[in-house]
Amino acid sequence: MDTIPVKTIFDLQSEIIRLEKSRQEQEMVLKQRFSGPSAIISSIRSAFPKAPEGQGGGGIGSLFSPDLVSLVSRFVLPLALNKTLFRKSNFIIKTVVGLLSQKASTYISEDSVTSVWGRVKSLFGKKPSTARKPSTVK
């Protein structure tokens, strides 16, 4: 920043005016960055640099090496297991389930989810051919 030494009241007033203008410019930039949901998401994603193409296929970068699906599964998987299957379990069992499911969530990625979805879709997409040739009656 460019600061000038304040020696007189006029220097002080000019510095105050300069700082007010700077504040207004920064407010305008912030309002533009947070004007809507898509702007907020893009601002958050820009805070985390993308990983190189060789390491994770361009997912969220160095702070979060797994992709978004893996991050969500770290919270959803333990919550879902503890609320459904282990609902009446004690604290220690719920803690162990939480720790193990967080470890298991490292194997869940966007690629694995899409490959499983593709397999399930292909199973239901294939219809057995039961069409018979019409018989000729004489």
What does this structure look like?
The protein is an all-alpha fold and 138 residues long. Among the domains are: 1-36; 64-120, no CATH class. It is built from five helices and no strands. α3 (68-83) packs antiparallel against α4. The model is unreliable at 55-64 (pLDDT under 50).
Q: Gyration radius, to the nearest Å?
A: 29 Å
Give a short account of the largest sheet. none
What is the beta-strand fraction?
under 5%
Percentage of helical residues? 55-70%
Shape: elongated
Gap between N and C termini: 100 Å
The residue-averaged pLDDT reads: 76
> Helix-strand pattern, N to C?
HHHHH
Number of strands: 0
Supply the helix-strand structural class. mainly alpha
Number of helices: 5
Low-confidence stretches: 55-64
Short description:
This protein is mostly helical and 138 residues long. The chain has 5 helices and no strands. The radius of gyration is 29 Å and the shape is elongated.
Indicate the topology.
Layout: H1 9-33, H2 37-47, H3 68-83, H4 91-104, H5 110-125
Helix pairs in contact: 3-4
Relevant terms:
138 residues, mainly alpha
